[in-house]
Design goal:
7-stranded mixed beta sheet; 3-stranded antiparallel beta sheet; 14% strand; binds pyridoxal-5'-phosphate
Length: 392
């Protein structure tokens, strides 16, 4: 990556991170040592949850979270179309079907009003989902209370996909603390904090945590209380279900723990850059992302939406920014429009709010090490691009 290029997101790595990983690398354990457990306890504490289960990615934890809630063939999982494909694919891994609920045009999160209508119709048709996966898009929490009350009324479980939202709060409490069965985080480098690759599930329910832990570790248990046979000795373990090798390594946990110490700083920095964007971008023909009064966002993304008259200009504006070393990105291509999902019966036109949003959005660079002068350059180039677009 050239020095001048400004990506839309980027990890922040310090000497302390490097030291922590090197220390883990020369310790007795490269995997299945003490750091993973420490990292789990730290994330559980941050989320005010009783249990946490680490894995090698958020995609893996989404998979085991669905399995822990009993998702299987014949079941349906609902999520938002405005997300990374992993939020939907996890249901298909379990042999279940996926469907989507359209988004709210202000928060770009799954819309509670649309959810209410769709649940009502699904109940009449006898096709209620088993699980709803609520994604806190860009780090802005969904209106969880509304989603939770609807889900409860229809007997639907909730998984919060908080891949973007570690450190975010809903009505003053950490995401995952209250309005779901399981909440998951991603530590991919582009997210709010990183363990290189890595994910974590948090929950208040012991049985869900135990199931997820077993599934991450090959479906194997050594817990004497769970064994089907009396243990003949300490070598003994039993495979009771089909699990996976989804383990997190000690190196990943070391980096995660080290990053966690700076999480509050990361979010503070993101929030102050957002305030600057608000000042620098006012008066332009774009909609800026907001923060609802129930939300404290971790600001993983800063998605702007071009005014409707500029819809056709999104691609040229994107290219202009890229040509000028500004790495904008588009979050997200609606999942249901992917060829793989079209083969499964979905098509353009099915979730119009998400599709309209997709056609006009661009995510501007936002990450802790973005400097004020880089941010100014982003805004200057965007202004040029918009000026040209208006003339076209
Ligand atoms: C990044 C992301 C994931 C997947 O995370 P990985 O850790 O890369 O597997 C899942 N859901 C959402 C919304 C994401 O942004």
């Amino acid at each position: 990556m050239s020095d001048d290029f400004i990506p839309y997101g980027r990890q922040s790595i310090t000497a302390a991170d490097v030291e922590a990983v090197c220390e883990a690398l020369t310790s007795d354990f490269l995997t299945q040592g003490p750091l993973v457990g420490q990292f789990e306890r730290a994330i559980a504490k941050l989320s005010q949850c009783k249990y946490a289960v680490a894995a090698n990615s958020a995609t893996s934890v989404l998979h085991v979270a669905c399995l822990a809630l009993g998702v299987g063939a014949g079941d349906i999982v609902w999520t938002t179309p405005n997300t990374f494909i992993a939020s939907a694919n996890c249901a298909l891994y379990c042999g279940a079907d996926v469907d989507f609920v359209d988004i709210d045009p202000q928060t770009y999160n799954l819309c509670p009003v649309q959810l209410a209508q769709k649940l009502d119709q699904a109940q009449s048709a006898g096709r209620l989902p088993k699980v709803l996966i609520a994604v806190h898009f860009g780090g802005h929490p969904c209106d969880m209370r509304a989603l939770y009350e609807l889900a409860k009324a229809y007997g639907v479980h909730i998984i919060e996909d908080a891949s973007h939202a570690i450190g975010a709060k809903y009505k003053g409490t950490p995401v995952g603390q209250r309005y779901s069965d399981i909440c998951i985080f991603s530590f991919h480098p582009v997210k709010v904090m990183t363990s290189a690759e890595g994910g974590m599930a948090v929950t208040q329910h012991e049985h869900l945590a135990e199931r997820m832990h077993t599934l991450v570790h090959q479906g194997v248990t050594k817990n004497k209380l769970e064994l089907e046979t009396i243990s003949p000795g300490d070598w003994y373990y039993e495979q009771q279900v089909l699990g996976f090798n989804y383990r997190m390594t000690e190196l990943q946990a070391a980096l995660g723990l080290s990053q966690l110490e700076r999480l509050a700083h990361f979010i503070e920095r993101r929030r102050s850059l957002v305030q600057r964007y608000y000042q620098l971008l006012s008066g332009l023909p774009i909609q800026l992302p907001g923060e609802a009064d129930y939300a404290f966002s971790s600001w993983h993304l800063f998605p702007i939406v071009l005014n409707e008259v500029l819809t056709e200009q999104r691609a040229p504006i994107f290219k202009y920014l890229r040509d000028h070393q500004i790495g904008t990105q588009v979050h997200y291509i609606p999942v249901h429009t992917q060829p793989f999902y079209q083969q499964r019966g979905f098509d353009w036109g099915m979730f119009p709010v998400a599709e309209d949003y997709y056609k006009r959005t661009l995510s501007l660079p936002l990450y802790p090490d973005l400097t004020e002068s880089q941010q100014q350059r982003v805004v200057a180039v965007l202004r040029e691009a918009l000026d040209q677009a208006v003339i076209l």
